[in-house]
Amino acid sequence: MNFRDQFHLPVDASGHPLAYLCGNSLGLQPKRVATLVSEELEDWQRLAVEGHFQARRPWMPYHEFVREPLARLVGAQPDEVVAMNALTVNLHLMMVSFYRPSGTRTKIVIERGAFPSDRHAVVSQLRFHGIDPADGLVELEPREGEATLREEDIEAMFARLGETIALVLLPGVQYYTGQFVDIKRLTAAAHAQGARVGVDLAHAAGNVPLRLHDWGPDFAVWCHYKYCNAGPGAVGGCFVHARHAESFDLPRFAGWWGHDQSTRFRMGPEFVPQRGADGWQVSNPPILSLAPLLASLEIFDAAGGVEGLRPHSEKLTGMLERLLERRAGDVVEILTPREPARRGCQLSLRIRGGNGKRVHDALGKRGIVCDWREPDVIRVAPTPLYNTSEEIERFVAALIEAVL
Ligand SMILES: *Cc1c(COP(=O)(O)O)cnc(C)c1O
């Protein structure tokens, strides 16, 4: 199965193919995106307002077209997922409902070095509730001298904090280290303390197999422009566990699109939420942003989902790891866990001697696209949908030249 020919592959200024190993940051464009977006533009030209009902994919229920493939992508029931807004907006909307500090149960736990947007969102939610982040924010840390978190340490921390935890926000795959945490185990440990659990799947969706419904977090949020290949600023994703499908008493920031679909257009003054994740929608969906997502999810389905891609993904990343160890082991430190089950496709590399930024720039000059994250990491993500073992060899060769 080869899906590489279904994507536009980027080239340099003189038309030579680049080795694009940056799908963790922005996935490549599926060729079918142009068709699906053009069809919406045509239908808008032809039908104008009637497109809501008469477009070949009517705009009114458009988000329904991505529901089932999205549920398959994250291992959810169809009414547990919805495509809407963007990641950080969805995180705020979820915290409005699931971060409900009361009495001494006020704390939010996240990992130290979390993606800044997540930390900003969490800190601003604490402040919104009048809680000093110095008291309310708890940050999980690796052990001295280690780069990644240990589940047993996190469990011990939850047990220590006990009933003071209101919300745990887990990374799925941590953006900096590439660590895939044990969502099931940590969700159970946090729930045992009576805390609510959210997961940020920015680097996990489309990258690692997920079983959100079974693993049981209360909510999850993610974006679709990274491994999901739906384009810059694409509409985000949101999961609300079925146990909350009819929690209509949860506070939420409401808008008309979250209103019960059957009576939405009676335009009544009272808000009646739709059941499931749909009840958290605020605005009507961005059709031109959902069309690329639809094109992209078709490819995941054709590939047998992330599960179908996983063996190839493990093979590519394992190859990258072995080549780096064998040929550049003395200059490259791999921060990402070694066990395939504890990572996705990304490896995070630290160049010994502190020359990482220079090395990254030199890779760029050799036609390698990967990314640099302050303070000292090069992230390389061979994605199973479109990367090849030749590109990995090219990366390693260029890296060795660059560190010389
Ligand atoms: C990419 C990423 C984001 C981006 O947030 P947007 O709201 O989509 O701009 C947030 N959190 C994490 C962990 C990310 O990796």
Q: What sequence of helices (H) and strands (E) makes up the elements?
A: EHHHEHEHHEHEHEHEEHHEEHEEEH
At the fourth level of CATH, the homologous superfamily of the largest domain is Type I PLP-dependent aspartate aminotransferase-like (Major domain)
CATH secondary-structure class of the largest domain? Alpha Beta
| Total number of distinct structural domains | 2
Biggest sheet architecture: 7 strands, mixed
> In the CATH hierarchy, what is the architecture of the largest domain at level 2?
3-Layer(aba) Sandwich
Q: Give the overall shape, derived from the CA principal axes.
A: globular
CATH topology of the largest domain: Aspartate Aminotransferase, domain 2
**Terminus-to-terminus distance:** 37 Å
